[in-house]
Design a protein that fits this description.
single chain, about 180 residues, alpha/beta, Rossmann fold, 7-stranded mixed sheet, two-stranded antiparallel ribbon, globular
């Protein structure tokens, strides 16, 4: 394993080299971006954490990790920022729910839920996820955060797919994408 750097360009190269595209997953016609190798590489994960934390340029009191890979990345970013992490989950996974928000995906629909009593009104939340595609998941998470009275300080993702225009659904919220494909 090679060491992490403090050179953002070298960090981005490392991150990009550890991503893998998987055609036709989870359904035909969808190109899935697999982060398994990135998460398994200590230096790659450290680089990703440093770079994603850059999305907190407006400050963050809490990180909100979006299910499921956003949990892993969000926890690492929260630890690096010295703040807590809140996991926004898919429907039916939380014992106590504050609110839920349904949204459409490229290949169906889903519902996200915010756990009760974990986000304080006025908190600045940095949302963290792996990929920004159509923006449905991120927009639903933003709606949950804002519905709880917190403020979205930024949305930080590893990869943005600009052709799907997900950023448009996050208008007025800072978006920090490490890579674009």
């Amino acid at each position: 394993m090679s060491a992490s750097t403090t050179d953002p360009a070298a960090d981005l190269d490392r991150v990009a080299g550890l991503l893998r595209d998987v055609p036709d997953f989870p359904t035909p016609g969808i190109l899935f971006w697999d982060l398994s190798a990135l998460l398994a590489d200590g230096a790659g994960l450290a680089a990703t954490t440093r770079l994603l934390a850059g999305g907190a340029e407006h400050g963050a009191d809490v990180v909100v990790g979006i299910e499921a890979r956003g949990f892993l990345l969000g926890a690492a970013v929260a630890q690096s920022l010295g703040v807590g992490v809140v996991a926004v989950r898919k429907q039916g996974k939380l014992p106590v729910v504050a609110a839920s928000q349904s949204y459409d995906l490229e290949y169906g629909s889903a519902t996200l839920e915010l756990p009760a009593d974990v986000l304080r009104p006025g908190a600045r939340a940095l949302l963290v996820d792996d990929v920004l595609a159509t923006g449905g998941t991120a927009a639903a998470a933003c709606a949950l955060v804002e519905g709880a009275g917190a403020r979205v300080a930024g949305v930080s993702v590893v990869l943005e797919l600009p052709a799907l225009r997900g950023r448009d659904r996050l208008a007025g919220r800072p978006v920090h994408a490490l890579l674009a494909k």
